[in-house]
Amino acid sequence: MMHDSKSRSRRHFLAATTAGLGIAGITRHGKAAEGASTQAGVPDPDIARGEVRSTNGELSSDGQRFVEATREIPIAAHCDVLVCGGGPAGIAAALAAARAGATVRLIELAGCLGGVWTAGLLTKILDSNNKTGIMAELLKLFRERGSSVAEQTGGTVYDPEIAKLVLEELLVDAGVKIMLHTRVAGAVVNSQNRLSVVVTESKSGRQAWTAERFIDCTGDGDLAAQAGCQFDLGIGQDCQCQPMSMLALLTGVDPESIGEFIRESGSGAKRNLLELMEQSGIHPSYRAPTLRHLHSGIYSIMTNHEYGVSAFDNEAISNATIASRREIHQIVSGLRKIGGPWKNIAVVATAEQIGVREGRRIRGRYQISSADLASGLRHEQAVCRATFPIDVHALSMAGDKEIDQSFKKDGLKPYDIPYPSLVAADVDGLLLAGRCISGDFIAHSSYRVTGNAVATGEAAGVAAARSIAMGVLPHELQWNELSRRDG
User: Fold this and answer.
1) How far apart are CA 278 and CA 287, in angstroms?
2) Which GO MF terms does the UniProt record name (predicted)?
3) Which of 94, 103, 386, 454 is most enclosed, with most CB atoms within 10 A?
4) At residue 481, what are phi and psi to the nearest 5 degrees?
5) In a 10 Å sphere around its CB, with 0-12 CB exposed, 13-18 middle and 19+ buried, how is residue 138 labelled?
């Protein structure tokens, strides 16, 4: 179902209050208003001493609304390319743009780079082996600096801590300015329909950032939604989305004693693990439990599904996170009771963030469709080729019965991801990368995996930097001409 984000009324309000750089109260110079900082992270000394009582607004007369006061927000910095989201798409976008000569700033909500790779403890990279460029570079580094398992899997099974370090080193060395613990809180589109300002919230308070180009790598399309872009969500009138999953790291088991249950040992490992669980009275919410050996005595496990959770409903995500963490500990406790090789199994860590398969699919200049997958789309502006199968996880505990599976009958042919699907349709100067690019429900179930996220991120980063150098907007850029020129 298509949505128009927070409705056009928000954009109309912002347009009506446009002043200077595009929003009332955002300034490059002058003292900030009450409650704001005089410069990024430095509080007004009077406020710090408690001598000025500040107010951010007031309750409405009926007590049902909070009316936020107008306030000035300093422009914290300007750069060529501002990347929002530091997951697999974001790190590739930032790295590619910086290497192409742009000044780049990366904004990330978590306390580390990598997104689902690190904060989400995914530990497996899908649809990556046919990729070149930054994806191939990362696999090489994960393989060389990882364990024997990383070596044997070509870096596709990796240690999240190694990944954190590698990603930070690469981006710092490329000159990317990294802002962790920072959330996108707003966006401003100017009177020329061009994204001009991003507003964030962090320990430094509310800040504003300007750039020549912006790239939404938030996964859920948060930046594009704030800018008023239309988007699609889930499937059907109820916008049902694929379930979320919590992953965890485990220890206390000898890999040689449980080889038949480790995913990389063969295709029957998931079935073997499920049978073991059910025979022991353990009934996981995900019916294809996946156990991976990472290194020494450390494993990752994915055996959780949280159904019916919206990617932008904070309370629902909070409840799903709590429920999923509880289930993981219950499952591990049940495995421990089996005894034998499982008697000392224990949880090392659960993921900081629950794994989100599906959020907003932002409307782009091209929408990848299930028909494109069926035909094996070849597009003159292809940025990469996707090969991962159509993977629609059950939308409820009832299983796959509620999903029309006819789209799978002819299988999947490798298909191209076109550059225009990375270009926002409604706002100029905004590129998309990762799982929030433009596509339908079925196509998204294939291209959403992180190998494709890196490839689309790299393309968006190159396009952002090169469009600045060429004096054109991203939607005016022809990727095939750029590729020939770069080649």
Assistant:
1) 10
2) 4 iron, 4 sulfur cluster binding; metal ion binding; oxidoreductase activity
3) 94
4) -70, -40
5) buried
453 backbone φψ class: left, alpha, beta (φ>0; ψ -120 to 50): alpha
Assess contact for 337 and 281: CB atoms under 8 A: no
Residue 428 has pLDDT above 80, yes or no: yes
What average pLDDT does range 340-345 have in this prediction?
Answer: 98
* Cα pseudo-dihedral 212, 230, 317, 161, rounded to 10: -40
From CA 356, how far away is CA 102, in angstroms rounded? 31
Q: What pTM, to 2 d.p., does this model score?
A: 0.88
Q: Distance of CA 470 to CAs 72, 459, 467, Å?
A: 34, 16, 5
- By percentage, how much of the chain surpasses pLDDT 90? 76
Q: Cα separation of 242 and 332, whole Å?
A: 25
> Tens of pLDDT along 253-275?
999 999 999 999 988 999 999 99
Q: Cβ(221)–Cβ(436) under 8 Å?
A: yes
- Interval 25-32 mean pLDDT: 37
Type and span of the H or E element at 375: helix 370-375
- What single-letter DSSP state applies at residue 437? S
**Mean pLDDT over the full length of the chain:** 88
Determine the Cα–Cα distance for residues 67 and 65; give it in Å rounded to an integer.
6
In this predicted structure, the answer to whether residue 21 has a pLDDT above a threshold of 80 is no
| Token representation of residue 362 | 């932002």
| pLDDT at residue number 28 | 35
The alpha carbon of 124 is separated from its chain's Cα centroid by a whole number of angstroms, namely 15
| Sheet-wide strand order for 361-362 | 2-3, 231-232, 361-362
Q: How many residues in the chain? A: 487
Q: Of the candidates 301, 281, 277, which has an alpha carbon nearest to the alpha carbon of residue 291? A: 301
Q: What is the pLDDT of residue 361?
A: 97
- Cα–Cα distance measured from residue 417 to residue 456, given in angstroms and rounded to the nearest whole number: 8
Tokens representing 432 are 């998309």
Q: How far apart are CA 27 and CA 309, in angstroms?
A: 38
What's the CATH code, domain 75-239+357-487? 3.50.50.60
Domain boundaries, the chain: 75-239+357-487, 247-350
